[in-house]
Amino acid sequence: MQVREDLSEAMTYTSPSSGKRVGMAFLQPKSRDDLAKRRIMMKAWADHSGGMLGRTPDYLDSSIMAMAAAAPFFGTGDHDYARNILRYYEYVRENDLLLTHTLINPQANRATGPSKQADPFIAARVLSKNSEGVVVRGARMLATLPIADEILVFPSTVIRSGQDDLPYSIAFALPVSAKGLKFICRESFAEESAFDHPLASRYDEQDAVVVFDDVLVPWDRVFILEDPERANRVSEQTGAIVFMAQQATIRETAKAEFVAGLATLIAETIGADQFPHVQEKIADILLTVESMKAFLAAAEAAAKPNEWGLMTPDYVPINSARNMWPRVAPNLSVVIKQIGASGLMAIPPEGVLNSGARADVDKYYQAKLADSEDRIRLFKLAWDAAGSSFAGRQDLYERFFFGDPVRMASAYYSWYDKEPYKSRVREMLGRKGE
Ligand SMILES: Cc1cc2nc3c(=O)[nH]c(=O)nc-3n(C[C@H](O)[C@H](O)[C@H](O)COP(=O)(O)OP(=O)(O)OC[C@H]3O[C@@H](n4cnc5c(N)ncnc54)[C@H](O)[C@@H]3O)c2cc1C
Questions:
Q1: What does 169-222 look like in DSSP terms, one character per residue?
Q2: Domain residues of the chain, as ranges?
Q3: Ligand 1 near 209 CB (within 6 A)
Q4: pTM for this prediction
Q5: Helices marked H in 70-192 — which ranges?
Q6: What superfamily would CATH give domain 238-424?
Q7: Ligand 1: centre distance to CA 312 (Å)
């Protein structure tokens, strides 16, 4: 898409260092116009897959872009971490590299922190330091898109670290081919046939547990080292969280729009669109679409420069979208199932259409508004969006990809300024007979 003649203007911009066209996600926005350019690029990526690709490059590129603008945050102690993040951003931008990332410790015992697990090296941590860099041992999860060029290892955006977590409080980047680095992938959900599995055949991103078998991280790839306090603040204080959440909200909007289209086509195709409860269910999805769009518009309208000079969307609507999405996203596949019903199982494999059963298929699979083949194509797409292994993983992704929704909601509760609403109630309670 970046090199397509009709799209390259929207998907790329001119690099300030090399003069080459580079990905628009690296553009450090200085104006509302820049923000709009970034939004148009992100929407184009998201619409391409109907929002089914969670980790198009713009997600992590946005994070690196914001962190580079905030380079002084990383400090310049024994090693110049500020210079490291700046150079890394330029390296990724100029080489158009694809990034994966891992933020979470293995799910061994969530009742306690990484240092108190059965083995303190279950979670990836500093093993030693030498003149070349830091040696890391242990594991992290969950890296979506392990086919990337590079992996970012960063602190969670949700879980806070304390002094016990010193050796775990690290941030760095490595090529995925680094010596000792292993990706243990889940079973693939990718399927061969684009007819039978229109989404799984194209968009299975894969997810992996990442093992660091005494991996050397060169000093110039280290951004945070044994610094829980900085690790706790990095996402928010650099502005990375806002730009990542904006990308996520744009993709979520694209997905809700796609599912709204899918649900409507299913209902119309089988003549179910006249039933009020079907209309109500599709209206629920349309309300999700419009809510996400409204969050985005509000965030852009109230954008202002952050402390590092980046024109930054307002975090209140963006953080609200981030917290609302895991609550409404599971309904997308529920509605497809409620409307598609048994039709979602009337999806014979491609071979059946080329067999002696074709005449029966043509007669019995026709629908009000589609011949048998078009109807089967539509329902296969619906099943891949709502019911297949690919769809199950999509559902889980939407619930968790930005962190545990329960702890996120708790953080949202503490962060949200509720004082104006409380004082309005107090004011009414205090009125004397007025
Ligand atoms: C499909 C998919 C793709 C993902 N891709 C990535 C990726 O690319 N990069 C990445 O870094 N991460 C990724 N994640 C991981 C994501 O960040 C985590 O799922 C999320 O942070 C929640 O952590 P967890 O899965 O370890 O759940 P856990 O923390 O193990 O939670 C399990 C359950 O226990 C509860 N719980 C646990 N601890 C507490 C607590 N202290 N207080 C209250 N409740 C608690 C949770 O609410 C939840 O119900 C992905 C996840 C999925 C499902």
A1: --EEEEETT-TTEEEEEPPP---S-TTT-TTHHHH---EEEEEEEEEEEEGGGE
A2: 97-231, 238-424
A3: no
A4: 0.96
A5: 81-95
A6: Butyryl-CoA Dehydrogenase, subunit A, domain 3 (1.20.140.10)
A7: 27
97-231 and 238-424 in the same fold: no
**DSSP class of 112:** S
- Give distance in angstroms: CA of 204 to centre of ligand 1: 20
d(CA 314, CA 153): 27
For residue 64, count CB atoms less than 10 angstroms from its CB and return exposed for 0-12, middle for 13-18, buried for 19 or more.
buried
Tell me how far CA of residue 398 lies from CA of 175, 249, 250, 252, 415, in angstroms: 27, 11, 13, 9, 22
323-377 pLDDT, tens per residue? 999 999 999 999 999 999 999 999 999 999 999 999 999 999 999 999 999 999 9
- Report pLDDT for 389: 97
* C-alpha to C-alpha distance for 292 and 275, rounded to whole angstroms: 26
Residues near 334 by Cβ (< 8 Å), separated by ≥ 6? none
| Nearest-CA residue for atom 30 of ligand 1 | 107
Q: Provide the percentage of residues in the chain whose pLDDT is more than 70.
A: 100
- CATH no. of 97-231: 2.40.110.10
Q: Is the CB of 143 under 6 A from ligand 1?
A: yes
Choose one of 110, 158, 176, 393 to mutate for the ligand 1 pocket test, by most ligand atoms within 8 angstroms of C-beta: 110
Q: In a mutational test of the pocket of ligand 1, which residue from 53, 142, 412 has the highest number of ligand atoms less than 8 Å from its CB? A: 142
**With a 6 A CB cut-off, is 393 part of the ligand 1 pocket?**
yes
**C-alpha of residue 102 to centroid of ligand 1, in Å:** 11
CA 16-17-20 angle, to 5 degrees, is 80
> Residue 153 and residue 124: Cα distance in Å, rounded?
10
Q: 102 CB under 6 A from ligand 1?
A: yes
Ranges under pLDDT 50 in the chain = none
